[in-house]
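Thread title: Can someone regenerate the structure for this chain?

I was given the following input by a collaborator and told the matching structure tokens would be attached. They weren't. Posting the sequence so someone can regenerate them.
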Amino acid sequence: MYDVFGLGNALVDTEVTIDDGFLHTHRIAKGHMTLVDSEQMHSLAEAVAELPKNSCSGGSAANTIYAVQALGLRGFYSCKLANDATGDFFIQDLTASGVGINTNAQLASGTSGRCLVLITEDAERTMMTDLGISVELSKLEVNDEALRQSKHYYVEGYMSASPSATEASVHCLELSEAYGVQVAVSLSDVSMVEFCRDGLTNMLGNGVHQLFCNEEEALAWANSDRLDVAIAELKDIGREVYITLGAKGSLAISADGISEAAGVSVKPVDTTGAGDIYAGACLAARCEGATPAEAARFANHCAAELVTHYGARLRQQDDYLALKARFS
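Best answer:
Regenerated them for you:
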């Protein structure tokens, strides 16, 4: 039995600190995720070649599943990689945490996906992503049996950028409904809402159990500048809706009403992965019997800790259990 089965891009994240001038010079939109091709990625990698870096297996859903595993539950991840050094690194790094992975994840030729995470002094992260072979993720990479044995199916909204990945997401949605697995979806980034809405709509089907987004994504989905309007619309999609509000905390919307989970006062140095660990912590808490409101408070606690460090993960896997113990 797995607690959370994840589907998403397999990327090796490389984090580097830059200044706003770098973004201006390279005409990069600050604070968002931008898809680039392999040639553009090579050019950007050369531009930061002399700067200090840190790499780890990543991708939004991979970070969420890692958090689930590190918090003491069991996670599985279906993804697609190339048979190259980047793919080797991803598999070794993720499986070392105990996360299960599909056995056919790395059979393809080509180039594995990479994400260059550019961090500015205000702790904002800007992601330049080359999906590589991950853009070809399909239902062939879905481990149906692992999904059947899971409590939750979690998918990142970034899947909506690829027709085959969207098809794989819908396949998982249909299997989850047949198996009685709860479905959780993250909108992931405002660019997905704005440019890949049809794919997201297919991934959401007739509604999901948990829907994760931040305030900007929620407003973009509703095409409104009023959060109450966005909440009303999102409630029709998710039985539980979790909206992160940055330093202000988050909202948990469910049949019990709207609960405000206050933010935790910290000095952020890097917001990379904050939404990912929020979703992982929330799902882990729900798996262990927490109410939506309690899960949101725990997720705030975890996200607040993460943003005080560089990178999309805490330094060591044991740090997650220590964080969990401090909350209790």
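The chain has one domain: 2-8+58-110+136-327.
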